[in-house]
Structure formats: structure tokens, C-alpha cells
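User: Can you help me understand a structure? I only have the sequence.
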Amino acid sequence: MSKDNKLKKIWHVFNVIYVVTLAYSAFVNYLQGDMNGIFMCGVAVLTLIMVPLIFKIFRFKPVYEIYLIATTFAYIASVWGSTLGGYGLFGFDKFLHFSSGFLMLTVAIMLYYLLSSHNEIKTVQEKRVFYVFINAVNMAIAVCWEFFEYAMLIFFNNDAINHYTQGVHDTMTDMLCATIAGLMLTVWIMRSRSNFFMNTAQKFYELNVKKKSF
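Assistant: Let's start by predicting it. Here is the structure, written out as C-alpha cells:
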């Protein structure tokens, strides 16, 4: 069995675990009469299908490393965090925002390859543009996520942004965690181009950008 087939099988198994856990959460929230929890179960369905749907819309070939990372992150953040009370645990929220910095910087690298139609960054000038671009995208995603949490407060009275208990402190520290993680990964990339995150981005390039560039 090839590596891709193994990853695909693991991803399918994890999808089953995700759905079973989510069904349990929906049942528990229903028994408790927690309508907000039930609503967040609906959001968790969207987070499960979001990445494969994006790949489908843009006709990208699947990169199962990305699928598995996205499902794992959504499982922890959306299912355990938002529907089963995980955000009540000390450090849970900051850990997720920190880890998102690594993931979103990887997305930024993939976006750079897609927009530039190449993955060879040779000149000093292009390296500077590359490093600024990937960190700017990472920080922009962190800001957009805080916009989403603010919208949840305004439109659904869901205080994911901790407005009533922490105010601006929660928003700023969330973005700071993602930014620091992105900068750490940038330093790692500057020292060594061979790591899991870069290799995942390279695989995306090989499958979805390189062949279309010719």
C-alpha cells in the first residue's frame, strides 16, 4: 500500500471518529437543552467538510496530509472545544491559536506557490518577499478568525471572543500566539527547507501547481 493510500485510510477512519464524537456531543447537548451547543455541532459539520470542499471547488488533487491535519485540528477545536466544553480548560484556546500559526503558514506557502506558479526561491530579494508574504497571510488569517468570533458574538450572542470576561486581551493574545508560531516556523524554514510543513506545501505544488504551469 502506498503512503497516500495509507494516509487516505487513516483520514477516513478519523472522519468516522469525528462523526461519532459529534453525534455523541449533539445528543448530550440536546439532553441538556443547550441550543448553543447544538448550533456549534452544526458549525462542526462545516469545519469537517470545509477543506475537502475547497479542494473540490478549485479542482485540486487531494493532499491527504492536509486533509488529516485539517480534520485533526477541527476535531480538537470544533468538536471538543466548541461542543464539549474544551475551551473551559486552562490553556486550551491559546494552544489552538498557537498551533494554527504553523498550519496557516503552511497554507500561506501553498498560496505563494500557487500565485507565483513556481517553488524555487533563489534570489535574496525573492526570499524576502516570500518570508514577508507568508507571515502577512498568516497574520491576516488570524485577524479574519477574530472577525469571525466577533461576528458570532454580534449575530448569535456566542461569546467565543471572550468579550465579556477578557475584552481585547483575548483577541490580542490569540493573534499573538498565531503570529509567534508563524515566525518560529519561518526561522525553521530559513535554517532548513526540509521539514513536515514545507514538504506538505511542496507536495501540494507538485500535484496542483507544477503540472498546470507547463
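Now, to help you interpret it: Residues 1-89 form one domain. The first helix runs from residue 3 to 31. Let me know which part you'd like to focus on.
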